[in-house]
C-alpha cells in the first residue's frame, strides 16, 4: 500500500463556554477536521 494523497478540510465547529471573572463567560470555538487519505496498491 502507498499513500497517494492526503486532504484535510474544515469540519463543523461548535461553540463552547468557559466561565471568567465577574460572572462573564468566554466563548471558545471547538473546531473539527475531515481527513481524507487515498491509498493505492503497489503491484510487484
Walk me through the structure.
- This protein has 44 residues and is mostly beta strands.
- It has strands spanning 2-10, 14-19, 25-30, 33-40.
- The strands form two sheets. The chain has a two-stranded antiparallel sheet. It has a two-stranded antiparallel ribbon with strand order 2-3.
Task: Break the fold down into its secondary structure elements and pairings.
Layout: E1 2-10, E2 14-19, E3 25-30, E4 33-40
Short description:
The chain has 44 residues and is an all-beta fold. It is built from no helices and four strands.
Keywords:
two-stranded antiparallel sheet; mainly beta; single chain; 44 residues
- In total, how many beta strands? 4
- Across the major sheet, the strand order is 1-4
Distance separating the two termini: 11 Å
Percent of residues in helices: under 10%
Strand content: over 45%
Rg, rounded, reads 20 Å
Class by SSE composition: mainly beta
Low-confidence stretches: none
Largest sheet: 2 strands, antiparallel
Quickly count the domains.
1
Supply the number of helical segments: 0
Task: Estimate the mean pLDDT confidence.
Answer: 93
Q: What overall form do the CA principal axes indicate?
A: rod-shaped
What is the chain-wise order of helices and strands? Answer: EEEE
